[in-house]
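Tokens as discussed.
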């Protein structure tokens, strides 16, 4: 990976700020429940209130609860003789809805509140994309271009501005891929350090390791162990790059 110069972070951060401006500007519009937001915002609010999904009044054909929410009335829960009868059908794992619930908790049950977490996830994914592409291509320009393309992508833009689960799925998959790429470089770095051991052993084994005079072999034999000790120290501190710009996984 290229050295983490000022531009190594400034470029991706600039692209990320551009994407953030596009996603957060007028995030509360349209002031309505859009598409499948009807399912997820109520499920998220139920998790926030009760810890489990709960049925609301109305049906998919007649979304009474949606109209109540837009009117500011949050008494949307269906009344049942027992709590078990009011349990809602769960079609998706809860993490995405919990992330939506954080925005509802911070900003209230409003369009901005339930779309906030998706906009944050979409914005952070731009930064991750730029940094991962930079790491893979060894080019700051290509990394920033990848982030810019994601920031301007129409599908990503729409999903980042609606309270759907797709953007959270994309975010965590991309974050996992970034960890795999970083781990690959970390493994390469460790093998590069380990590669000095056979070299030192070859020198210590005899004449075949380093051709030339006895004095040359003695010099190399004293330098390699010192380089190995320095490499161990630098890898531990994150300074050493094995000559190819590799960095530990924490330097995404």
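Sequence:
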């Amino acid at each position: 990976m290229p050295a983490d110069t000022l531009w190594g972070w400034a470029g991706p951060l600039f692209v990320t700020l551009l994407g953030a401006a596009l996603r957060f500007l007028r995030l509360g519009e349209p002031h309505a429940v859009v598409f499948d937001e009807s399912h997820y915002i109520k499920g998220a609010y139920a998790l926030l209130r009760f810890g489990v999904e709960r049925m609301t009044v109305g049906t998919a054909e007649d979304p009474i609860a949606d109209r109540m929410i837009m009117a500011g009335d949050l008494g949307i829960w269906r009344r049942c003789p027992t709590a078990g009868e009011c349990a809602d059908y769960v079609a998706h794992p809860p993490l995405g809805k919990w992330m939506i619930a954080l925005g509802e908790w911070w900003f209230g049950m409003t369009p901005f509140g339930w779309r906030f977490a998706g906009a944050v996830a979409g914005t952070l994914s731009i930064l991750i994309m730029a940094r991962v592409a930079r790491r893979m291509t060894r080019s700051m320009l290509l990394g920033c271009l990848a982030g810019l393309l994601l920031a301007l992508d129409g599908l990503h833009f729409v999903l980042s501005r609606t309270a759907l689960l797709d953007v959270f799925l994309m975010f965590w998959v991309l974050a996992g891929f970034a960890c795999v790429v970083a781990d690959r470089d970390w493994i390469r770095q460790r093998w590069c350090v380990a590669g000095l051991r056979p070299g030192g052993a070859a020198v210590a084994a005899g004449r075949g390791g380093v051709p030339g005079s006895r004095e040359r072999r003695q010099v190399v034999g004293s330098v390699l162990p010192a380089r190995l000790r320095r490499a161990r120290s630098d890898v531990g501190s994150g300074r050493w790059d094995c000559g190819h710009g590799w960095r530990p996984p924490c330097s995404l």
